[in-house]
Inverse folding.
């Protein structure tokens, strides 16, 4: 739906992993970039390196910072063509032992923050009559793996929000899609809110994707405008052969 060349692409969580790789891939295809994360030094260095990019320090769980992020994008480039709602965090704990405060924080980051970003950018996209939003879910949603309850709950809720927003926005020129990565080699496991060693043990023997592979899948999804794409192998319930 969107030609990435010259498009203004806003990526949350652009300071590492899938977000950083998406920023690099979009820059390689000629996009202009808005790079958001809390670690401002990282996104500032990436913006310098890529050119035609602005870095914005943004904690996406802070609504005012989200509004300021979208304003900064419009101030810099006059429009926002693509948003990749990528910032997120994992948590590994049994349902019985999941701390309620951890769950609240996880939902704030993985569910409420992408909604806040969508709500902040939709007036801009509606006025343009075009725009694409890609929300990042996870292949963990395809299974009932012990320890993933809180994380899967946050991502499944995001998937449903995305699918329903897609229907609500039909005819406006704005497309909302879900990308479903498989286990990917990033800082994700080191940044889990809880349960790092158990989660790492659960992934023993799994061949991790590279973030660059996910970035290409995200840009392909932006180009196609499809509702959903996954990188999950058939053996794990996905469509990747
Ligand atoms: N790696 C996997 O196996 C995998 C698989 C499926 C889905 N995913 C999803 O992919 C997305 C990216 O994860 P990743 O694997 O690339 O992990 P990562 O390397 O840990 O990256 C997470 C990114 O989110 C940002 N972030 C975290 N909290 C934030 C906040 N409050 N405000 C703004 N930014 C925040 C981090 O930046 P700062 O710390 O600088 O703010 C970082 O750039 C996540 O949504 C994750 O759930 C990952």
């Amino acid at each position: 739906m969107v030609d990435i060349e010259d498009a203004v692409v806003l990526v949350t969580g652009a300071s590492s992993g899938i977000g950083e790789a998406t920023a690099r891939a979009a820059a390689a295809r000629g996009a202009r970039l808005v790079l958001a994360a809390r670690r401002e030094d990282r996104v500032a260095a990436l913006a310098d390196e890529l050119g035609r990019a602005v870095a914005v320090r943004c904690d996406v769980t802070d609504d005012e910072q989200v509004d300021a992020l979208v304003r900064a994008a419009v101030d810099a480039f006059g429009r926002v063509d693509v948003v990749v709602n990528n910032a997120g965090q994992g948590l590994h704990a049994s349902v019985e032992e999941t701390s309620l405060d951890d769950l609240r924080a996880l939902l704030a980051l993985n569910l409420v923050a992408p909604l806040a970003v969508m709500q902040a950018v939709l007036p801009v996209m509606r006025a343009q009559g075009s725009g694409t939003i890609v929300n990042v879910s996870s292949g963990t949603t395809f299974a009932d793996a012990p320890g993933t309850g809180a994380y899967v709950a946050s991502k499944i809720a995001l998937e449903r929000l995305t699918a329903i927003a897609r229907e609500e926005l039909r005819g406006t020129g704005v497309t909302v899609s879900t990308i479903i990565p498989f286990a990917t080699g990033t800082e994700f496991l080191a940044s889990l809110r809880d349960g790092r060693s158990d989660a790492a043990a659960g992934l023993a023997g799994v061949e991790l994707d590279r973030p660059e592979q996910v970035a290409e899948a995200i840009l392909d999804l932006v180009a196609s405008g499809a509702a959903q794409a996954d990188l999950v192998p058939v053996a794990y319930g996905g469509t990747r052969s």
About this structure: The chain has one domain: 8-229. The mean pLDDT is 97. The two ends are 26 Å apart (CA to CA).
